[in-house]
Design goal:
Length: 171
């Protein structure tokens, strides 16, 4: 019943991101330099994070038991046919009441689990789309917007523009 996820399969709206050149990185941050130009083709990114309700469909469909979804985890010895995923068959905080409301974003999910979920979702919906995690460049391009600013709202930090510690929203 969450209006954010009204599409088939409980998916959120996807925001189209226009392909273009953009500046990736930040020379003022040691782990993000040198700043360099990157070109990306058009792509789409979900407007909202995957919720517990969405991820529950993967859990209920026994996604943790299917080797088709776990190629990298299998290769890296994080998944095997007898044991399944090394860290269990649910996200880390799945039973924690502070994090498991169906409309909250799923948390405690490893990269392997997120990739497995995307593969399962692609097969489950079978709608001609491939669902996957965004690349680092795609994520940064979407966050910077068409103007390629440091933050989605501009180049200057404004504490009221997002749910940050400074905003004291505590949600």
């Amino acid at each position: 019943g969450d209006p954010r996820f009204a599409h088939s399969g409980g998916l959120p709206d996807f925001a189209p991101i226009k392909g273009s050149w953009f500046w990736m990185g930040d020379d003022s941050q040691e782990d993000e330099h040198p700043c360099h130009r990157v070109y990306l083709d058009d792509f789409e990114l979900a407007r909202y994070p995957t919720t517990n309700a969405m991820f529950a469909r993967f859990v209920e469909a026994r996604g943790y038991d299917n080797p088709l979804w776990w190629k990298e985890a299998f290769a890296d010895l994080y998944w095997d046919k007898q044991e399944g995923f090394r860290y269990g068959n649910r996200p880390r905080y799945w039973e924690d009441k502070g994090y498991n409301n169906p409309s909250q974003p799923v948390v405690g999910v490893s990269w392997y689990e997120a990739v497995a979920y995307c593969r399962w979702l692609t097969a489950e919906l079978d709608d001609g789309y491939t669902y996957r995690l965004p690349t680092e460049a795609e994520w940064e391009r979407a966050a910077r917007g068409e103007q390629s600013t440091r933050y989605p709202w501009g180049d200057k930090w404004e504490e009221g523009c997002c749910n940050s510690q400074e905003a004291r929203l505590e949600t």
